[in-house]
Amino acid sequence: MSDTAAFVERLARIAAQRRTLSENEVLLLAEVAELGRAIDVARADIASLRVGEISACHIPAATDELGAIVTHTAAATDAILESCEGLDGLAAELEGEAAERLTAATTRIYEACSFQDITGQRITKVVATLQTIERRVAQILSVAGRAPADDWPPQADPGRALCEGPQLPEAAMAQSDIDRLLASFD
Fold first, then answer.
1. CA-CA distance, 44 to 153, in Å (whole number)?
2. Are 23 and 12 spatial neighbours (Cβ–Cβ below 8 Å)?
3. What is the mean pLDDT of residues 137-154?
4. Which of 75, 110, 119, 141 has its Cα between 20 and 30 A from that of 85?
């Protein structure tokens, strides 16, 4: 039982014995004591959840992955738009129906590329939400008397990273390292 809950219970018992509080006030103090016990249980539950993992690993990793999505989507969109510009140049050299069909196709591609801006905006909103959650988790941990990363990260399985999909650019092997590795097989 927390110090607060114990204090309130003791105060309620003393007041009840002295009959200095009304019955409603005694009931109110008992409710406050029960709230103190509920807070203690919640603190213990939070501590057992290993919420430090959320703040120390999961949210930053999700934020990094979303940032990589925005970066790669922008790069792909730029490549698509550059190709469309080349096709527009080719359409200018053509005449008749072929030029019109090519121009119509590149126009549809330009319009479809608006997904990149919308995707970036939505991902930015998700990242902001994740950062808000991260701050709130840190506040909860602070109230519970724990540091955000008390027990994180655990020792990682080195082979596991190979099964987790594409690497973020700063974590990926350099092409020269890959070339050197492949050359060593010869």
1. 21
2. no
3. 62
4. 119
